[in-house]
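Need fresh eyes. Consider my entry:
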Amino acid sequence: MNHKKLALLIIAVVAAISPVYTVADEIKGHIIESLRGVPEDVKLGSIQVDEDVSEEQLSKLASISIRRAITVAHQTIQGKIIKARLNEAEGFLVWEVEVVHGAIPVIVLKIDAGDGKLLAAEQCEDGAWWSLWN
Protein backbone atom coordinates (compact mmCIF):
# COMPACT_ATOMS: atom_id res chain seq x y z
CA MET A 1 0.00 0.00 0.00
CA ASN A 2 1.47 3.34 -0.97
CA HIS A 3 1.59 6.36 1.32
CA LYS A 4 -1.37 8.17 -0.34
CA LYS A 5 -3.69 5.19 0.13
CA LEU A 6 -2.53 4.73 3.72
CA ALA A 7 -3.12 8.41 4.48
CA LEU A 8 -6.61 8.26 2.95
CA LEU A 9 -7.39 5.13 4.95
CA ILE A 10 -6.30 6.80 8.19
CA ILE A 11 -8.37 9.90 7.40
CA ALA A 12 -11.41 7.74 6.60
CA VAL A 13 -11.07 5.80 9.88
CA VAL A 14 -10.66 8.97 11.95
CA ALA A 15 -13.65 10.57 10.21
CA ALA A 16 -15.74 7.45 10.82
CA ILE A 17 -15.05 7.28 14.56
CA SER A 18 -15.04 11.02 15.26
CA PRO A 19 -18.85 11.29 15.62
CA VAL A 20 -18.72 8.57 18.30
CA TYR A 21 -16.40 10.66 20.42
CA THR A 22 -18.50 13.76 19.81
CA VAL A 23 -21.68 11.98 20.96
CA ALA A 24 -19.89 10.56 24.02
CA ASP A 25 -18.56 14.00 24.91
CA GLU A 26 -22.04 15.48 24.47
CA ILE A 27 -23.59 12.83 26.76
CA LYS A 28 -20.88 13.37 29.36
CA GLY A 29 -21.43 17.14 29.16
CA HIS A 30 -25.18 16.66 29.70
CA ILE A 31 -24.57 14.43 32.75
CA ILE A 32 -22.09 16.88 34.21
CA GLU A 33 -24.56 19.72 33.64
CA SER A 34 -27.36 17.77 35.36
CA LEU A 35 -25.11 17.37 38.42
CA ARG A 36 -23.93 21.00 38.56
CA GLY A 37 -23.99 22.24 42.15
CA VAL A 38 -24.35 18.74 43.63
CA PRO A 39 -21.50 18.10 46.10
CA GLU A 40 -19.33 14.96 45.96
CA ASP A 41 -19.77 14.28 49.67
CA VAL A 42 -22.88 14.21 51.83
CA LYS A 43 -23.08 17.40 53.93
CA LEU A 44 -26.57 17.10 55.43
CA GLY A 45 -29.36 14.56 55.62
CA SER A 46 -32.69 14.01 57.31
CA ILE A 47 -31.87 10.79 59.21
CA GLN A 48 -28.77 10.66 61.40
CA VAL A 49 -27.17 7.26 62.03
CA ASP A 50 -24.02 5.84 63.57
CA GLU A 51 -21.39 4.05 61.50
CA ASP A 52 -21.89 0.78 63.35
CA VAL A 53 -25.64 0.41 62.75
CA SER A 54 -26.56 -2.95 61.21
CA GLU A 55 -28.14 -3.24 57.76
CA GLU A 56 -31.35 -4.50 59.36
CA GLN A 57 -31.56 -1.42 61.58
CA LEU A 58 -30.82 0.87 58.61
CA SER A 59 -33.72 -0.62 56.63
CA LYS A 60 -36.10 0.09 59.53
CA LEU A 61 -35.03 3.74 59.62
CA ALA A 62 -35.47 4.51 55.91
CA SER A 63 -38.59 6.49 55.03
CA ILE A 64 -38.33 6.07 51.27
CA SER A 65 -38.17 2.77 49.40
CA ILE A 66 -35.48 1.55 47.04
CA ARG A 67 -37.99 2.12 44.22
CA ARG A 68 -38.25 5.81 45.10
CA ALA A 69 -34.45 6.11 45.28
CA ILE A 70 -34.12 4.52 41.83
CA THR A 71 -36.78 6.87 40.45
CA VAL A 72 -34.81 9.87 41.76
CA ALA A 73 -31.64 8.42 40.19
CA HIS A 74 -33.39 8.00 36.80
CA GLN A 75 -34.71 11.55 36.98
CA THR A 76 -31.17 12.77 37.59
CA ILE A 77 -29.28 10.63 35.05
CA GLN A 78 -30.72 8.55 32.24
CA GLY A 79 -28.72 5.35 32.49
CA LYS A 80 -28.62 1.79 33.73
CA ILE A 81 -28.88 1.24 37.46
CA ILE A 82 -26.29 -1.37 38.38
CA LYS A 83 -26.56 -1.28 42.16
CA ALA A 84 -28.63 0.34 44.89
CA ARG A 85 -28.08 -0.09 48.61
CA LEU A 86 -28.87 1.57 51.88
CA ASN A 87 -25.80 2.91 53.62
CA GLU A 88 -24.44 5.40 56.14
CA ALA A 89 -22.59 8.38 54.65
CA GLU A 90 -21.05 11.08 56.83
CA GLY A 91 -23.45 10.17 59.65
CA PHE A 92 -26.63 10.19 57.54
CA LEU A 93 -28.77 7.43 56.09
CA VAL A 94 -28.62 7.40 52.28
CA TRP A 95 -29.48 5.26 49.33
CA GLU A 96 -26.35 4.82 47.20
CA VAL A 97 -27.44 4.24 43.63
CA GLU A 98 -24.80 3.41 41.02
CA VAL A 99 -25.64 4.50 37.48
CA VAL A 100 -23.75 3.83 34.27
CA HIS A 101 -24.39 5.49 30.93
CA GLY A 102 -22.50 4.06 27.96
CA ALA A 103 -18.79 4.81 28.15
CA ILE A 104 -19.23 7.25 31.03
CA PRO A 105 -17.72 5.85 34.25
CA VAL A 106 -20.07 4.78 37.02
CA ILE A 107 -21.65 7.63 38.97
CA VAL A 108 -22.77 7.02 42.56
CA LEU A 109 -25.78 9.11 43.54
CA LYS A 110 -26.39 9.50 47.27
CA ILE A 111 -30.08 10.03 47.93
CA ASP A 112 -31.52 10.97 51.32
CA ALA A 113 -33.32 7.91 52.74
CA GLY A 114 -35.68 10.22 54.62
CA ASP A 115 -36.96 12.66 52.01
CA GLY A 116 -35.61 11.41 48.65
CA LYS A 117 -33.47 14.47 47.89
CA LEU A 118 -30.23 14.09 45.96
CA LEU A 119 -27.48 14.83 48.50
CA ALA A 120 -24.27 14.02 46.63
CA ALA A 121 -22.87 12.51 43.46
CA GLU A 122 -19.45 11.15 42.70
CA GLN A 123 -17.83 9.53 39.73
CA CYS A 124 -16.06 6.24 40.40
CA GLU A 125 -12.55 6.74 39.09
CA ASP A 126 -12.07 3.01 38.54
CA GLY A 127 -15.40 2.71 36.73
CA ALA A 128 -16.47 -0.15 39.00
CA TRP A 129 -16.91 -2.34 35.90
CA TRP A 130 -17.08 -5.47 38.04
CA SER A 131 -20.37 -4.19 39.51
CA LEU A 132 -22.08 -5.14 36.26
CA TRP A 133 -21.77 -8.81 37.22
CA ASN A 134 -22.60 -8.60 40.94
In short: Residues 127-134 have pLDDT under 50 and may be disordered.
